[in-house]
Amino acid sequence: xxxxxxxxxxxxxxxxxxxxxxxxxxxxxxxxxxxxxxxxxxxxxxxxxxxxxxxxxxxxxxxxxxxxxxxxxxxxxxxxxxxxxxxxxxxxxxxxxxxxxxxxxxxxxxxxxxxxxxxxxxxxxxxxxxxxxxxxxxxxxxxxxxxxxxxxxxxxxxxxxxxxxxxxxxxxxxxxxxxxxxxxxxxxxxxxxxxxxxxxxx
Length: 202
Hints:
Shape: globular
Number of helices: 5
Strand content: 25-35%
Number of domains: 2
Largest sheet: 5 strands, antiparallel
Number of strands: 9
CATH architecture of the largest domain: Sandwich
Order of helices and strands: HHHEEEHEEEEHEE
Distance between the termini: 79 Å
């Protein structure tokens, strides 16, 4: 009986790791809760149908211990490194806004995250460099240099920025602001660098 229990645990561990690693490589993130639940149900049902109740019981026990130590995708974060050029001789602050939805893109009231960066503290050679820790997801950034120190992006009467600004992927405005899909990028488990050139349109 003891030998059978050990073999069962080893088999379950091997099965889970093989399937989990496949999903990890494909999705670059750990298994979401719904997929995990489906995997557990599938294995348990298959063994239960074999009428091996002892094996099914041991499997459920093993899965319970395994799941208690599992970290789901919603809890994972990645490192976004933002490198800004064009601010070597500037003083003051840079503001970064993070968006994670096309519907919220460029809305001041729907920013997913924001960061105020002091240029003097973040200057590294000719670059202003900062890091953001964010959940694994798709994002787009807007960045502006607060030249007058009022904490707001100043624009002219038709909405064109009067202060140096930029967007992720260095998306360029053409008869209007860049679209979300021009600025969006995917943050995965590996650190990602967004090198952005600050520019002035006026």
